Structures are given as structure tokens and as C-alpha cells.
Amino acid sequence: MSITRPSLTSEYASTTPLQVRIDTHARHSEHPDDPVAAVLAALALTGSEDLADIGCGDGRFLAQLAEQGHHGRLVGLDNSTAMVAAADTIPGIEGVLGDAQALPFADDEFDAVTARHMLYHVSDPYQALRELWRISRAGSRVAVSVNHPATCARTRQLVLDRAAERGLAPAVGMVNDVNSTTLPKMLSVVFGEVHIRQCDNALLFDTPEPVIRFAEAIFSFCGIDAASPHRSAILDAVTTDIHDWFTAHPGQCWRDPKGYIVATATVR
């Protein structure tokens, strides 16, 4: 039987899994947390900057800036046509299709550059960082956010175990080894001095259903493609596991530690 392997292209062909993950973190974090606010605090924007968000996803970060009255140029770049199309529908946002490792922008084009939760998806993260530096004007601030290495490991391991029973393993190339422990040194090699803000938290669920939705939203990263003939059986098994845990632990919450850093550098 031929098994379709997931890829970044297939994962981001639709905005739905990303939307589920974002909504899960927004609704079920143990402590209040706003990753967008964390990045904005690190940037200390005045509102007039020309800003590029690399790996913009559906554009919600830029949308918030536009809603707050930012009047500088706002550009969102992504290598997913679905994500660019979503970003491009937001008033005041310019969606651009492109590769973070070969940005389609001129040298010194932007006053601020962000790369939020995307650097672990590129094949050559150092090249992507050099591109962030290249498009930034002198004095610009660059903010990069990445997860802790074991973020949401509990739910991920549950899915991995059930996928392994069907002979599935994470696809090579979807996620590299850039994380909160490796990024600071990498960023300092390209930019020099780096400032780190660390955000530690956890997902906390008191009912099974949102855990199940979140688990399914990370299927691709665990090697389970949307077209896999095993997908339905794996989802059934994961669903049973999660329901069984809540039955065996009445009154308890499913807790899954997570966290990220925002690393900021100023271009000299």
C-alpha cells in the first residue's frame, strides 16, 4: 500500500490546522499569554515603521497592527499560497509569496522584521537569518520567536505512539532543530547582541474534546498525512486514549507544558 507522506506544503495548504492550534493556545493556556503582544513589546514600534512579517501565516499578527493604527507599510510573506491569500484579504496588508531563504525584497527595505514560530521549518536557518539581516535597515529591530524543544510533548507523544503502531514516523524536513536553546547563539552569529524574553506555560484541558482537536491538528508533524489510509484509525485510537485518561482521572486536568522565547536584535 502506498502511503502519502505529509510535508510543509500539505500541512499549510489549508489554514484550518494552524487555526486550531492558535485557538487552542489562546483558550487553554494555563497562564494568560499573548505571543503577539510579546513580539510587539520586543519591537517597541512607533507605528510608522515599514515592517515585514516572514512566515506570516494567515496574517493575524499584521491584522492586529493594522487595527491598532500602524501606518507604516505592512508586508506578510509566506511560502503557502493559502496563507498568502488569507493575509492578502486583510485591509492594509500586502501578502507576498516567497521563500524565507531567498526573500524577494531589496537590501535595507524594512525598519522592522519578524519571524514568528517559523524558523524551525526552513532547511537552512542561518541563510534565513542572513536574509532577515539583509532586508533590514540600519537601526532596525528583528524579532524571532521559537518554541521550547519539548513544547506540548505529552500530546505529541501520544499521537506519535499511535502513528508508530501503523508504521508511520515524522516526515524528514518538516521541523529542524531550531528551538529556544539553539536560537540565541545562531542569532548572535548573524546579528551580534541578542536580547531574550522567555515565556513558560502549559496547555490545560478539563475536558477531552479540545485535547482531541489539538492532537489532530498536529497529525502532520507526527507523520500522518490528511490522505493517509490510517488517519481515521489513528484518530479513533487517540480519541479513545484521551477519553480513557479523563475517565481514569476524574476532576483532573490534562496538562501539557509548553513555552517559547522572543529573541530580539538590532541591526548595526
Helix/strand structural class: alpha/beta
Terminus-to-terminus distance:
55 Å
Elements, N to C (H/E): HHHEHEHEEHEHHEHHE
Kindly report the oligomeric state of this protein: single chain
Could you report the average pLDDT, rounded to the nearest whole number? 95
Regions with little confidence, pLDDT below 50 for 5+ residues: none
Largest sheet properties: 7 strands, mixed
Tally of separate helices: 10
> What overall form do the CA principal axes indicate?
globular
Over the alpha carbons, how many angstroms does the gyration radius reach? 19 Å
DSSP strand tally: 7
Strand content: 15-25%
The spatial strand order of the largest sheet comes to 3-2-1-4-5-7-6
Helix fraction by DSSP (H/I, runs of at least 4): 25-40%
Describe the structure.
This protein is an alpha/beta fold. 38% of the residues lie in helices and 21% in strands. The chain contains ten helices and seven strands. The longest helix has 18 residues, at 231-248. The chain is globular and about 55 Å long. The N and C termini lie far apart (55 Å). The relative contact order is 0.18.
Briefly summarize what is shown.
The protein is α/β, with parallel strands linked by helices and 268 residues long. Helices cover 38% and strands 21% of the residues.
What is the element layout, followed by pairings?
Elements: H1 8-11, H2 16-28, H3 35-43, E1 51-54, H4 60-67, E2 74-78, H5 81-88, E3 94-97, E4 110-116, H6 125-134, E5 136-147, H7 153-164, H8 183-191, E6 195-205, H9 208-217, H10 231-248, E7 254-266
Parallel strand pairs: 1-2, 1-4, 2-3, 4-5
Antiparallel strand pairs: 5-7, 6-7
Helix pairs in contact: 2-9, 6-8, 7-9, 7-10, 9-10
